[in-house]
Amino acid sequence: MTKARWFRLSVVLVPILMILLIIVYWDNVGTANFYLHTSFSRPHSSGAIPGIAEGEDWEALREVDEFLAKLLTSSVKQNSSISRKTEQPLVQSSSKPVASNLEENVRGYDWSTHDARASLDQEKLQVERQRTLREFCANSSFTFPTKERSFDDIPNYELNHLIVDDRHGIIYCYVPKVACTNWKRVMIVLSESLLDQGVPYRDPLDIPREHVHNTSTHLTFNKFWRRYGKFSRHLMKIKLKKYTKFLFVRDPFVRLISAFRSKFELENEEFYRRFAIPMLKLYSNHTNLPTSVSEAFGAGLKVSFSDFIQYLLDPRTEKMAPFNEHWRQVYRLCHPCQIDYDFIGKLETLDEDAAHLLQLLKVDRLLRFPPSYRNRTASSWEEDWFAKIPLPWRRQLYKLYEADFVLFGYPKPENLLKD
């Protein structure tokens, strides 16, 4: 190797080594402390490194890639035995859930037992779900916004739903209204990112809901830029290649019904002020609305499901701001054609999928997935909810969420889209 080549390589390596030192010694949860369970992961293309021109020192950068991969693997081997010693066996779930939130009080929990092994061949199910997703991502005749962009084209602020657990090598893309509260609780327990009187939480249901949804609790991809600067995107790609990536989805129309019930049928001050007041003014011709949700509910002023659908279909909505995460499409939250997910769970098979995933991650001895909510919004309710929605609106709504139906194998709701 020539002196010039050594010099170029050292110029790239020195900053990266500094970054790695920061990861190991400065982060609360560092790369050196994780151990991987990725036997079912597939390789991913590394793509380009932001900030480096096409064709510039690519040979040196490939060597850097190999160096980082070896270093990460070495760290895993050195620290896995330590990590295992610190892990504690499964803690029995609390006798009752934390009920600090009106929504959880109203909906309650289903504490009945479930046999996760009984009903589904999980391996075949995962193969089929991933095959469907890959086929439609590769199908040039099936198009939707953002489909063709690369991972490098995704702005950092759109990566805020990818939660990273470096201790176990896991990346979870959370989708609101798809059991995300409890999956976030699981991620907090695994990553030990939140303490209770100086001790990490061990039972997911012990974690108060207000802490679960606090953005400072989780390490997400959009925070990488602040931590790692220009190397952030490259580190994301390394983690995407090495870590196990999963998400959970549900029938898109049922998810919308669930979002409406949660945010507009229950008193929610934030959603009343941000969304309900504009909807009531625009679509129900109300003026001089109360400033608080309790006053509005007391006066019988509530957003109807029809108002909500009009809001989603109104072209002015997205011009003002992107859809709120509770009704934003999954393909916009989790980028399934740019990120090769190792596991795709569904709310419709949540109990079986969750148990199988925790086994694959080799963390099923550490915790159980919290029990499901009872009264889960059912797909059989769709016809009742959409009965008063005009047919043209239903068809427009399907087109708006079609990618989520197709990519994740949900059948087209023909009964709602025909005369």
Automatic annotation (TrEMBL):
Q: Which GO terms describe its cellular component?
A: Golgi membrane
Q: Name one Pfam family in it.
A: Sulfotransfer_2
Q: Which residues cross the membrane?
A: 7-26
Membrane topology term reads: Single-pass type II membrane protein
Q: Would you kindly state one Gene Ontology biological process term found in this protein's UniProt entry?
A: proteoglycan biosynthetic process
Q: Which keywords appear in this protein's UniProt record, sorted alphabetically?
A: Carbohydrate metabolism, Glycoprotein, Golgi apparatus, Membrane, Signal-anchor, Transferase, Transmembrane, Transmembrane helix
Q: What is its EC number?
A: 2.8.2.-
The molecular function terms in GO held by this entry are: sulfotransferase activity
Subcellular locations according to the entry: Golgi apparatus membrane
Family affiliation: Belongs to the sulfotransferase 2 family.
Name of the molecule in the record:
Carbohydrate sulfotransferase
Q: Which organism is it from?
A: Nothoprocta pentlandii
Highest classification ranks of the organism: Eukaryota, Metazoa, Chordata, Craniata, Vertebrata
